[in-house]
Amino acid sequence: MTAEVPRARATLDTTAPNQARIANYVLGGKDNFAADREAAEEILAIAPEIRVMAREGQDFHARAVRYMAEQGITQFVNIGAGIPSESNTHQIARSVTPDARVVYVSEDPVVLSHSRALLATDSNIGVVEGEIMRPAELMADPGLRRFIDVSSPVGIVIMSSLQFIPHEDDPYKRVAELRDLLPVGSHLMIVHAVFDSRPEAVGPIVDVYRRVFGRVEDASRNRAQVLGFFDGMELVEPGLVYIRLWRPENPLKVRNPEKAWLVGGVARKPAP
Prior knowledge:
It is a single chain. This protein is of the alpha/beta class. It has a domain of 187 residues: 3-Layer(aba) Sandwich (Rossmann fold), CATH 3.40.50.150. Strands 1, 2, 3, 4, 5, 6, 7 and 8 form an 8-stranded mixed beta sheet that branches. The chain is built from 10 helices and 8 strands. It is 36% helix and 14% strand. It holds the Pfam family Methyltransf_19. One of its GO terms (molecular function) is methyltransferase activity.
């Protein structure tokens, strides 16, 4: 058995910036605090296009979840879920499969409290405390098992959380462990910022995260490195691409795909 990263229970600290609340602010939400807004503005000063990227990331999420539902996936696990918005995984999946079941996973107390308050009345939605770095614990969680049949194909949604996990923590190993726990036919969706087209932004953004979040590691990656998360899976067309290029609904939005420097892909777990 592979040892997992020790779990430290998250507590609410409104004086320290938080990734989920920063994302909420960038998307125009109100569920954030002054520390989150200050950190977000520092990052936006370096790369103001991040506001557009955040919205396009949501659009990709909708296309990808809809695709998985169209392939027959009826149950989803959203790992690293953010604060509920107007276009959540369950709403998208249910546009194809009305009885789709979804479990939202987060280690952030604000995300957990908001999610439980807004989604508690839905008998096919669960909210579980957890993260990608503890895949075995997560997939065995009774709260998740209440909604997810782990013997049937599952759609895994990972929106951006991997891009904040440094190389030293070996997130590739954790994603591979999760893959091995999934049944054949399961799908994995990943979105990740890359710096192939914005190499000059790496240093300044990493410096902000080091100062604001007290980090010493660098979690920045390029497309080739992100591709490694899909090892052992079969990427569906068009592969791992800039999100504007992934099955666009509006051909006009494929212009200058590198301007939204997020890559995304969906892969299927094949039979052995």
